[in-house]
Amino acid sequence: MPQIAEKESAQQWFILPGYYSWEQFEAIEALMADAPGLRITYLDGYIEFMTLGENHETISRIIAFFLQLYFYEMGIRFIPVGSATRRDRNKDVSFQPDESYYLGAKKEHPDLAVEVVITSGGTDKLTKYQRLQIAEVWFWENNQISIYRLQNKKYERVERSTLVPELDVALLVRCVQMSDVLEATNEFLNSIRRSG
Question: Domains, the chain, ranges and CATH?
Answer without folding.
Answer: 54-195 (3.90.1570.20)
